[in-house]
Write a structure and sequence with these properties.
This protein is an alpha+beta fold. The protein has an eight-stranded antiparallel β-sheet, with helices on one face. An eight-stranded parallel β-sheet has the order 31-30-29-26-21-20-19-32. Strands 33-34-35-40-37-38 form a six-stranded antiparallel β-sheet. The longest helix has 32 residues. Keywords: Glycosidase, Hydrolase. InterPro entries: Gal_mutarotase_sf_dom (IPR011013), GH (IPR017853), Glyco_hydro_31_C (IPR048395), Glyco_hydro_31_N_dom (IPR025887), Glyco_hydro_31_TIM (IPR000322), Glyco_hydro_b (IPR013780), Glycosyl_Hydrolase_31 (IPR051816).
Length: 677
């Protein structure tokens, strides 16, 4: 029996040459792997996994002289004492090599692979000082493997094999380090460290620029099973409130209380559904005061009462940045509630503020990883928003929006920026979640521009940030949204029509808007937003052109109105999918392969999706297109929801798509109220 292997009952540990490697059961069919180059494992590092493992059977551990195995349901992990083909640790650098196997037949799911027979090994720690290392974790590549998830990105790929993905938060680029493979496993890189993942043909490599130990979680199963295990391990989303499944109206920006109210009144006068309307940035007195400017919003409580009578929720924009002219700035500075720096002041970005004229302020950001910082900000939100009846919050610029984004100079309460920087948006959403629950509220929804693993448990929705306003951007969004769904975040939306520009009087843009609106009606959240018109100077007085459904001309208006009513008819079905997401982790928006993993073509269909199990949605994403090809997955029969024409699955068909119609197909005789009764 090798002296390097140790049976801990719930875990298998290997120790040699100072390194400790532990594999432990972590939920059904799942394991957690941690490794440190020296000393004991650290138990208190921030990550995505819940504090304790999901319930599961005790693993079976077997030790021998040269290897040991841990079996946990469908996954088996083998630790080999030496590298493949090596007889002694002196001949190779990868002693303690891991292989993940399917328990059923012993075939390989995932395996460590060293970069070289001598050095470096599959796990590489390069010291950066004070106990921190640049960490690399390498795995073997498999030809033809398809890889999904990893959050939200604008590269336009659904299958991300071959990509290099930065593990860092940026506007429209969201890091959620959950990787889902068509080989039957999911891997969560359980570290908020800044780094990257390289999905190369020669191998997969995870990199943390500066961290103290390796920590990741692997689960076996098809994608739906992976997402279920992931929800068990990182937290389930709550059930989306009924009102949030309706239509959200927004633009950059409504400047006054009366302007916003008049838009809500007009929706109701026209008999159009409206559930949420948004007060965007610069509604505040100063950045970081988290309250309405009384010159523009004189009676927020009365505004909320009128909106309530109309059946409309008010959502307000909440930024994490604090101007030096804010009444809260010095108190927060004195209490150490800002993200600190290794060198220099706590200013992290320049931003315009009221009263500064043509100048910008050097703003700081509150530290969302600090419980005291979260409590301070929530106290202001409670007094200035919640006490007026406002219960929906738009957490903008929550990456946070640093200029420059130099995490190496930052120090959070949770640790150095390079080690914990990706954690911020999740903890910012936690501020709203914990504050609302402490205030006696039971429904929590925040709309976030960034996210991280585990944010779903805090009622955090994600939208796709500041994106373009053309068909190319729409095509990218479809793939981005599906990868978000495969990253364990079930609540997602885009700015319908895109964000940066768009002229409501331009016929070409009107077509983009109509096609995007049709797509948006089948997204988990249905939200119209954007900064219409030519680019403007960023300042408190700015506002874009109109962005209501009646803003796009006589041809577009009845089409847009029809999809508002269609979404209303589908709300019971949408809510059914939201309950499924909360219970099982399976998202409402699904790539075709999630329901049809046995159909090879379903794994490559990246321009259509399923809303729930029964409705296939095929957006039109080309200018002037009035038809399109659609792959109908094998294993079901399909019916055109508009015409009643039947199709056998396993074929690609060409269907009509006039401007007023997005192709929709019903599965196996499902009956949904697509057409008006």
């Amino acid at each position: 029996m090798s002296q390097h292997f140790h049976d801990l009952g719930h875990a298998l540990e290997w120790r040699a040459k100072g390194e400790t490697l532990r594999v432990e059961a972590w939920g059904p069919d799942s394991v957690r792997v941690r490794a440190t180059p020296g000393g004991p494992l650290l138990e208190d590092l921030p990550g995505a996994l819940l504090e304790s493992a999901p319930a599961g059977a005790k693993p079976v551990i077997e030790l021998s002289e040269h290897s040991a195995t841990l079996v946990n349901g469908a996954i088996t992990v083998r630790i080999d004492a030496f590298s493949e083909g090596k007889l002694t640790p002196e001949l190779g650098a990868t002693a303690g090599q891991l292989t993940f196997l399917r328990t059923e037949d012993g075939s390989e799911l995932l395996a460590e692979e060293p970069a070289h027979f001598w050095w470096p090994g599959a796990r590489l720690y390069t010291a950066t000082g004070n106990g921190y290392h640049r960490i690399e974790q390498r795995f073997r590549a498999h030809t033809g493997e398809k890889l999904f998830g990893l959050g939200q990105h604008t590269h336009g790929m659904l299958d991300q094999k071959g990509a290099v993905i930065d593990l860092v938060q940026r506007n429209a680029e969201v890091t959620v380090p959950l990787l889902v493979s068509d080989r039957g496993y999911g891997l969560l890189w359980n570290s908020p460290a800044i780094g990257r993942v390289e999905l190369a043909e020669t191998g997969t490599r995870w990199v943390a620029d500066s961290a103290r130990q390796i920590d990741y979680w692997v689960t076996a199963g098809q994608p739906a099973e992976v997402l279920g295990h992931y929800a068990d391990a990182t937290g389930h989303t709550p059930v989306l409130p009924e009102w949030a499944a309706g239509f959200w109206q927004c633009k950059l920006r409504y400047r006054t209380q009366e302007e916003l109210l008049e838009v809500a009144r007009e929706y109701k006068r026209r008999g159009l559904p409206l559930d949420v309307i948004v007060s965007d940035f610069f509604h505040w007195t100063h950045l970081g005061e988290w309250k309405f400017d009384p010159a523009e919003w004189p009676d927020p409580a009365a505004m909320v009462r009128e909106l309530d009578e109309l059946g409309v929720k008010l959502m307000v924009s909440v930024w994490p940045s604090v101007s030096p002219v804010s009444e809260n700035y010095h108190a927060m500075l004195d209490q150490g509630l800002f993200i600190n720096t290794e060198y220099g002041p706590v200013a992290h970005a320049d931003w315009p503020d009221k009263g500064l004229g043509a100048y910008s302020a050097q703003v700081a950001f509150y530290d969302a990883t600090n419980p005291a910082g979260r409590a301070f900000v929530w106290d202001r939100i409670r007094k200035n928003y919640l006490d007026h009846g406002i219960k929906v919050f738009w957490l903008d610029a929550c990456e946070p929006e640093l200029k420059p984004n130099f995490q190496g100079n930052l120090r959070y309460s949770a640790g150095p920026g390079l080690e914990v920087g990706n954690l911020y948006p999740r903890e910012n959403a936690r501020m709203i979640h914990d504050g609302m629950l402490a205030s006696g509220e039971t429904e929590v929804v925040s709309l976030n521009r960034s996210s991280w693993a585990g944010a779903q448990r805090y009622g955090a929705a994600l939208w796709s940030g500041d994106i373009g306003t053309d068909f190319a951007s729409l095509r990218t969004q479809i793939k981005a949204g599906l990868n978000v769904a495969l990253s364990g975040i079930p609540w997602w939306t885009t700015d319908i029509g895109g964000f940066h520009g768009g002229d409501p009087d331009d016929p070409a843009y009107r077509e983009v808007l109509v096609r995007w609106f049709q797509y948006g009606a089948f997204c988990p959240l249905f939200r119209l937003h954007g900064f219409r018109g030519a680019e403007q100077k960023l300042e408190p007085a700015m506002t874009g052109l109109p962005n209501e459904v009646w803003s796009y001309g006589a041809e577009a208006y009845p089409i847009l109105a029809s999809y508002l009513h269609l979404r209303e008819r589908l709300r019971p079905y949408v809510m059914e999918q939201m309950r499924t997401a909360a219970e099982t982790g399976v998202p409402p928006m699904r790539p075709l392969f999630l329901e049809f993993p046995e159909d090879p073509d379903a794994w490559t269909a990246d321009d259509s999706f399923l809303l729930g199990p029964d409705l296939l949605v095929a957006p039109v994403t080309e200018a002037g297109a009035r038809s399109r090809e659609v792959h109908l997955p094998a294993g079901a029969d399909w019916t055109c929801a508009w015409t009643g024409t039947g199709y056998r699955g396993g074929a690609t068909v060409t269907v009509d798509a006039p401007l007023e119609r997005i192709p929709l197909f019903l599965r196996d005789g499902a009956r949904l109220p697509i057409a008006e009764a």
